[in-house]
Amino acid sequence: MRALLFALVLCLPLTGCGEKSDARRLALTADRVSGYIETGLSLVRTQEELGNLPTEAAVSIVTSLRAVNTVSAEIVRETRPFLDPESGELRLSSEGRSSILAVLDTGRSVLQTLLADPRVSSMSEKNRQQLNAVLNGLSANLRLVEEIVRKAKVTP
Amino acid sequence: MNALLQLLTSLPSLLVSILVEIDREKQRRGLTTEELFEEAGLRFEQNDQAASALLAELLAKLNQKS
Fold first, then answer.
1. Which of A38, A59, A70 shows the shortest C-beta gap to B59?
2. How many contacts, defined by CB atoms under 8 Å, are there between A and B?
3. What angle do CA A70, A76, A77 make, to 5 degrees?
4. Which residues face A91 on adjacent strands?
5. How would CATH label the architecture of A21-155?
6. Contact between B62 and A48 using a beta-carbon 8 Å cutoff
7. Which residue of B has its CA nearest to A45?
8. Do A31 and B28 count as a contact with CB atoms less than 8 A apart?
9. Mind listing the pLDDT tens digit for each residue in A92-120?
10. Rounded to whole angstroms, how far apart are CA atoms A121 and A2?
11. What is the dihedral of CA A99, A104, A107, A111, to 10 degrees?
């Protein structure tokens, strides 16, 4: 029940998704991802301090969250120059698109590796559900970025 | 019964999380796209610093244990 409420809290920002330009959706997604990572770090710190999470598992999770944070910051850096400030459309060269999709793949691999990590799968049900809520939120946002990048206009 | 008690004791922190998220969402709506990108970039930097500090603490703890 607690995990369900926790997931609900993380899904709250998604309720504001209406008709928006790609630039706006991307900016909102980046902001949400940064929030998920912040929540994830705070969750790991609290649970480790309470003795609910082994220190080794905490190290593994923090390392992965940091990697996703780096990947997300890179996606924003790489994408921003290609956003048309007037129309809010994303215009990419085919190389630019491939490069961003490759970065997205890295982010997804990090999340999948973390979910498959035995130190994570052996966590208590409650802790695993909370972490899963954060990781699923991150995956959903990476999918949203991929959707925006794939439909971006390709410039010669 | 235990689950209900657990839920009741965790409600205050959940309510705080909900209020923080609602407040954050309101702030997001008031920001321009450029400002949102700036904000996210800043938070990515803060997250990196927080993660680095937390890792150092955790690794120090592990070293103490071994």
1. A59
2. 109
3. 85
4. A153
5. Up-down Bundle (1.20)
6. no
7. B54
8. yes
9. 888 888 888 888 888 888 888 888 888 88
10. 19
11. -150
What phi and psi, each to the nearest 5 degrees, are found at residue A154?
A: -95, 125
**CB spacing of A73 vs B28 below 8 angstroms:** no
| Neighbour-count burial of B47, counting CB atoms closer than 10 A to its CB (0-12 exposed, 13-18 middle, 19+ buried) | buried
Give bridge partners of residue A90 from the DSSP assignment.
Answer: A83
Which residues of chain B neighbour A23 with C-beta distances below 8 Å?
33
Distance of CA B27 to the CA centre of its chain: 16
Domain edges within chain B: 1-30, 32-66
How many Cβ atoms from other residues are within 10 Å of residue A21's Cβ? Answer: 17
Under DSSP, the state recorded for A1 is -
How confident is residue B11, by pLDDT bands cut at 50, 70 and 90? Answer: low
pTM attached to this predicted model = 0.75
- Nearest-angstrom CA–CA distance, A92 and A103: 15
Of residues B15 and A36, the one with the higher pLDDT is A36
**Alpha carbon distances (Å) from A110 to A57, A60, A65, B2, B9:** 15, 11, 8, 36, 34
Which chain B residue has its CA at the smallest distance from A41's CA?
A: B51
B27 interfacial to chain A (CB closer than 8 Å): no
What residue segments make up the domains of chain A, in order of their start?
Answer: 21-155
> Are the C-beta atoms of residues B42 and A56 closer than 8 Å to each other?
no
